[in-house]
Amino acid sequence: MRSGCESSLQLTFQKATVAVDNIFKSLRDVTRARMHMKQFNSVYVPGSNTCQATYKPLLKQVVEEIFNSDRPDPVDIEHLSAGLTDLLKTGFSMFMKVSRPHPSDHPLLIFYMVGGVTVSEVRMVRDLISAHKPGIQG
User: Fold this and answer.
1) How many domains does the chain have?
2) Fewer CB within 10 A of the end CB, N or C, for the chain?
3) What's the domain range around 80?
4) Could you give the CA distance from residue 24 to residue 30 in angstroms, rounded to a whole number?
5) pLDDT tens profile 20-41
């Protein structure tokens, strides 16, 4: 975010307040963008009497859900049909019991994270993939 100042000498309390307000407005917008999600709407994992609350990054939640074999249909991950054949399959699946393809079935998965990822997040994804799918490069 920019404060509209050429140097720190021109920064006033009012300009700093506006810049901070803009930052928090952007954070609230990101929160609202995830409110419609059923599973990935929070990075906060509440604690209990015996354990404290924890932080679980969104990227970790998504990767664990993709490679979780116990849940055949990820709730917040949607398959978008690419061609006419896929579109016809999707149409017939409404009438017959045809399951959607699972994300882990595909040979190549591309994650696009708005804002980027840190080195520790890349390492975390690589470790998660190697734990769930040995022999696959992360």
Assistant:
1) 1
2) N
3) 57-132
4) 10
5) 999 999 988 878 877 888 888 8
Instruction: List, for residues 89-100, the tens digit of each pLDDT value.
Output: 555 555 555 666
- What's the predicted TM-score (pTM) here? 0.62
**Residue 31 within a domain:** no
Task: Tell me how far apart the alpha carbons of residues 37 and 136 are, in angstroms, rounded to a whole number.
Answer: 29
* pLDDT tens digits for range 105-124: 777 778 888 788 889 999 99
Q: Check: CB of residue 138 under 8 Å from CB of residue 111.
A: no
* CA distance linking residue 126 with residue 138, whole number of Å: 5
Q: Which residues fall within 8 angstroms of residue 64, CB to CB, at 6 or more apart? A: 128, 132
Q: Are 77 and 62 in contact (CB under 8 A)?
A: yes
Q: Is residue 5 part of a domain?
A: no
Q: Let me know: does 98 contact 92? Beta carbons within 8 Å.
A: yes
Strands 44-45 and 54-55: antiparallel
Q: Is 90 a member of any domain?
A: yes
